[in-house]
Amino acid sequence: MFKRLSTDYFNWILIIGVILFIFEIAFFYGGTIIPALFSALFTYIGWKYFNRLWGKILFWLSLVSLVFAVLNLLAVRFLIIAAIVLFVMNYSKSKKNAKQYEPILPGREIKEETLIEIDPLFRPTIFDDQITDDTVYQWKDINIHGAFGDRVIDLSNTVLPNDTAVISIRHLVGNIEIYVPYEVEVSIHHSSMFGRGYILGKHHLQLMNKSLFYQTANYDTSKQRVKIITSLFSGDIEVKRI
Asked: Where are the alpha helices (DSSP H) in 72-163?
């Protein structure tokens, strides 16, 4: 459905959603935004202590409260209605304009490429911490996003390729720790709204809506190197040798 949606329609939906969000904050004193934030906080606390009985109860009660609080937002209601309307419109068009399939004649056969599915080291998670294995593991480029929790990546337990290894992390709240062997060259581009940065001996104690860009001296000429791209809303980043 969304593949057929033109950019202009999509942009107008987003603009109207943002306007409704601002309208609710300005004229309804936040509406259900503040309860939603508190519910999200208690959901996170319940998840951290999910192994205990009170943690399970707090998690599920807070999660239900969070869902209802989010659904009560004007912007969310508008987006749901817009999605339903678009679904009906696209379904109506698909009924009128049925797809036509042509048979593949001899000499026009298209050979499909052989693809190998590879399991990533990390999978995107909303809650929970993620840490690389303590034992030796096969390297795979990392491209993940998350909401809450810490991310710890230790490159000393893997064999990096003779090429550029890529680590891309987009995260909301939590800390990122990356341990890099001494013989590997590093390039790091980090952006943060709130937090601190400790990058190969360089300390930044206040990162208020700032970006950092560092690379080691031989990065451009080295075959074995790591390119790190990270983005945090609130949290610390630490990159150090091991």
From this structure: 74-96
